[in-house]
């Protein structure tokens, strides 16, 4: 009888090796793949998050910078990794838009990943050259409609969030502005300060210093609600374009099929980290608003976000460089 019970227990253990491994998770270092080079805001976030996660998980969390191909390289790396919780992706919004923009992408944004949590939204603002004779979103739209093709707008490149945000703005506002794509915020902002670019959606982390110095004027934030980082700045929706909403984000994802206990352990660790006053202050400095939602909420948001940008991309016939 005892032998039969032992045999049954052994068989049960062998039948559920994934469960046994998940209960011991993590038992070795975890790799966090980042689709951006070292030195930027996302890199600072990744390293601060990795350090805090290591303290809670009891294992090192190593940041692996894998920039390239419009963030596709990093996303594809994680999508192909073993679904054991030891390879994570600190994804940006582009994980969902890249398959819509590039002809050959080796992953499906919904099917290839298991969402852990949306860490934060990246605060984006609609900024203009101060010489432009408008003071709010409503006046900007009216001016653009009265002067079709006179205004131009900068972006950080074809198919980037700053490009898509303006295409959504143009579509909803029934206005025509000429697109000037740049390779990053830096050169676009410099040209906007010089008056060669009229308007641009951009991250507060990069445009904020110019706004604070009076070289640019921020009109609104892109999110549906006001930003915790910039509570006095209205949203695009409340200041002239009702219904407008765009939220660039950063979130933690694992390969599809990663055991639920591992996902839950990761989510719990990050949720605790995001409650720390020290981290909350850092996020504001970096121009990020904390989210920290559940895996299910993140999955639901991702589906809606992809559907929104799919419409914008198809309507404007956008193809990435």
TrEMBL record:
<feature type="signal peptide">
    <location>
        <begin position="1"/>
        <end position="22"/>
    </location>
</feature>
<dbReference type="InterPro" id="IPR042100">
    <property type="entry name" value="Bug_dom1"/>
</dbReference>
<keyword id="KW-0614">Plasmid</keyword>
<dbReference type="Pfam" id="PF03401">
    <property type="entry name" value="TctC"/>
</dbReference>
<protein>
    <submittedName>
        <fullName>Tripartite tricarboxylate transporter substrate binding protein</fullName>
    </submittedName>
</protein>
<keyword id="KW-0732">Signal</keyword>
<dbReference type="InterPro" id="IPR005064">
    <property type="entry name" value="BUG"/>
</dbReference>
<comment type="similarity">
    <text>Belongs to the UPF0065 (bug) family.</text>
</comment>
